[in-house]
Amino acid sequence: MKIARFSRIGFILAAAGSAVGLGNIWKFPYITGENGGGAFVFVYLITVLMIGFTLMIAEMLIGYMGRRDSVTNFETLAPRQKSRWKYGGYIGITGLIIMIFYSPVIGWTLHFVLLSFSSLPSSVEIAQKSFTSFISIDLWSQIFYHTLVFIFVTTVVTRGIKGGIEKLNFILMPVLIVTISAMFLYALSLNGFSQAWDFMFAPDWSKLTSASLVTAVGHAFFTLSVGMATIMTYSASLPKESNLVRSSLIVIALDTGIALIAGLTLFTFLYEYGATPSAGPGLVFISLPTVFYEMGFLGHLFSFVFFVALASAGLTSAVSLIEPMVQYLIDRFSYSRLKASLSSGLFFYVFGLVAILSISEEYGSMLTFGSKNFFDWADFITASVMLPIGGLIMSIFVGYVMEKERVASHLKAQLGAVYPLWYFSLRYIVPVALFVVILNLVGLLKL
Ligand code: PFF
């Protein structure tokens, strides 16, 4: 059977489409706001460069050499047959769990695309009320949007790597880049820009707590899509003779660039109209719409453009989140693509419904376990627990388990003089940093 592969540019767009998501435009600005700005951004950038870059190359290498689903890749690349390392491949399930909360949030963005055409909220109180009632009372609307996301994502993935995923990214990535850049250019002309710049790039070290350190590291993973076999699954369909290092650098540059541009644009708008950057998860759904209201007619246009960008970013990441499981079901259980996509889609659809109920007024208490509701658990377990563990597994696998010569034969020429540094980082810096994050998480270590 002939396997459809990405084109070179198709792969870069798809990997960047996976990386650039709600994490960049929704999450990054609000966690930067919550964690005091500059110092947090600094830690995030260092982590992206030191840990993210090292791991993305390692993850791409596993996919590129293995050429199959994540479980099979770990199995065939381990030096001994029947190695337990195949269990490392099960980190591919993380994406489906992320989709449990990611799909409802994409649904919110679709709702806000439509709201752009109606009256925008004239005060933070009104915006807060309407957003809260939307997510906690208006269950049917949320279920409707979640269903749309399910149908869309499943249909795209059913069409495969070339006809579905690559095509979607060819359309939505330019939309995203053009819309975000247009808003950024407008932001550049406003007075609030210099305040936004200072907030993001002038570090106030006193604001950096141990909790924000861990958040920054966790977010670096989440935003780059490393540590959960997404990039690995995509790179299994790379054309022969691809340059993994160059691809990683482009994806990281796009992901980081778009996060910084989105952050600067948002904070400029917020400062310009007297809103605060520390509003938490409601930043783009509560504070921003009131800013759009202040802008008058232009605000409706900006609101539309912004939420289209956000939805596009979310959808290109969503397809990448379910693809590892789809590939696994096809490779290991001989499912047809249709059956594999439908079963993966149904998984996140059903649990996504539970997540929606868990943030509702009516059913919330029934679906709250300990300190968090089901929705927040899905977020916490994936972004804070599974991604660092996935990253740790990969760094140990490529750094210690795979044969040194095989790793070198693929990467030495591409990395040149940086190769020893990369290998050192993979064997020592990355695992130690991740181990510290994990220990801190389970409470064994208080940073
Ligand atoms: N990187 C995406 C974002 O920033 O929204 C989310 C994501 C996609 C995480 C794919 C992990 C992943 F494998």
Structure in words:
The chain is mostly helical. It has one domain (8-445): Sodium/glucose cotransporter. The chain is 76% helix and 1% strand. It contains 18 helices and two strands. Strands 1-2 form a two-stranded antiparallel ribbon. 4-fluoro-L-phenylalanine (PFF) binds at residues 18-19, 21-24, 95, 98, 222-223, 225, 228, 230, 317, 320-321.
Question: What is the topology?
Answer:
Elements: H1 8-19, H2 22-34, H3 38-66, H4 70-77, H5 94-115, H6 124-136, H7 139-158, H8 160-188, H9 192-201, H10 210-224, H11 230-235, H12 244-272, H13 283-294, H14 297-333, H15 337-358, E1 368-369, E2 372-373, H16 374-401, H17 404-415, H18 419-441
Antiparallel strand pairs: 1-2
Helix pairs in contact: 1-8, 1-12, 1-14, 2-10, 2-12, 2-14, 3-4, 3-9, 3-10, 3-12, 3-16, 3-18, 5-7, 5-14, 5-15, 5-16, 6-13, 7-8, 7-14, 7-15, 8-12, 8-14, 9-12, 10-16, 13-14, 14-15, 15-16, 16-18
The structure holds 4-fluoro-L-phenylalanine (PFF).
4-fluoro-L-phenylalanine binds next to helix 1, helix 2, helix 5, helix 10 and helix 14.
Characteristics:
447 residues, 18 helices, Sodium/glucose cotransporter, globular
Sequence of secondary-structure elements: HHHHHHHHHHHHHHHEEHHH
How much of the sequence lies in strands comes to under 5%
The strand line-up of the biggest sheet is 1-2
Whole-angstrom Rg: 21 Å
Percent helix among the residues?
Answer: over 70%
Q: Mean pLDDT, rounded to whole units?
A: 92
Which class do the helix and strand fractions yield? mainly alpha
Low-confidence stretches: none
Distance between the termini: 52 Å
Briefly note the CATH topology name. Sodium/glucose cotransporter
Number of structurally distinct domains: 1
C-alpha geometry: globular
Number of helices: 18
- The CATH C-level name is Mainly Alpha
Bound molecules: 4-fluoro-L-phenylalanine
Instruction: Assign the CATH architecture.
Output: Up-down Bundle
Biggest sheet character: 2 strands, antiparallel
Number of strands: 2
